[in-house]
Amino acid sequence: MVENSLSPAAITDNLETRFIGQRVICYPRLTSTMDVAKHKAQQGAIEGTVVIAEEQTAGRGRIKRAWLSPKGSIALSIILYPSSVYLSSLIMVASLAVVHCVERVTGLKSQIKWPNDVLVNGKKVCGILIESDIRGNIVDYAIIGIGINVNLRLSDFPEISPTATSLSHELGKDVPRLDMIRYLLVETERLYLALPSGESVYQEWRDNIVTLGKRVQAISGEATYKGIAESVASDGSLLLRQPDGSLTKIVAGDVTLRE
Ligand code: BTN
Fold first, then answer.
1. How far is residue 229 from each of residues 12, 126, 154, 210, measured CA to CA in Å?
2. Is residue 56 lining ligand 1, measured as CB closer than 6 Å?
3. Residue 63 · residue 36 · CB < 8 Å
4. Fewest Cβ atoms closer than 10 Å to its Cβ: which of 39, 56, 119, 228?
5. How far is the CA of 243 from the centre of ligand 1 (A)?
6. CA–CA separation, 128 and 151 (whole Å)
7. Is there an atom of ligand 1 within 6 Å of 181 CB?
8. What is the pLDDT along the chain (259 residues), one digit of tens a residue?
9. 115 lines ligand 1 (CB under 6 A)
């Protein structure tokens, strides 16, 4: 695999966005783009600033999990200053943007596994992490972190290959990361700007969730639930029908498909 490094100029050149990706900072190697984006947000970086790393040495996922992001993958964080009413919708915006981007650039169909994974052929190809700082009802900043396994040879990463895949593996050839990033930024902005206009982002997100209708095990904090993932609410939580007929709302957690 030979691909040029990503450059801010190549990403921002004629990018059809108003603010997301109009300022891009690229690093060859970083601990985590989340840490740098958080620092930049605290310093008042303009909304839509994007921090990208060719490689992360301490990439992180939800629930303090490590996130592997070697060269060839996409690791980026987007700084936003949303109203608190849109905070729970950011995961919908980001995961749908990834689904659209994967299909547009590779032709592959992908699906969302609640709450924050994007799968291709049933295996994880992307993880999304949203971190925010809120004071009272005011969001100081929110950061959308997106990691995509783009051009990775799975045999080099046996620790993830049982459950994860890469776009190049599924497609049988390398995928242009520059096209992926540019389209991802355009789609993220389009969906983010659509939030005030109503239900469409939530509905499309719900329609793309592979988890729904399936028997699942959900772990939320110390509790484990088993049942059928019946639906998702507009605040992003999962509605789980338990064997006793009760409906449990799971706000944050991790889900395993049991079929
Ligand atoms: C998960 O699957 O739990 C979320 C993974 C999120 C990974 C991305 S890569 C870019 C950004 N920087 C990080 O350290 N994490 C996110």
1. 40, 21, 30, 10
2. yes
3. no
4. 39
5. 34
6. 18
7. no
8. 446 678 999 999 999 999 999 999 999 999 999 999 999 999 999 999 999 999 999 999 988 889 999 999 999 999 999 999 999 999 999 999 999 999 999 999 999 999 899 999 999 999 999 999 999 889 999 999 999 999 999 989 888 888 999 999 999 999 999 999 999 999 999 999 999 987 789 999 999 998 898 898 888 888 888 889 999 999 999 999 988 888 989 888 788 876 6
9. no
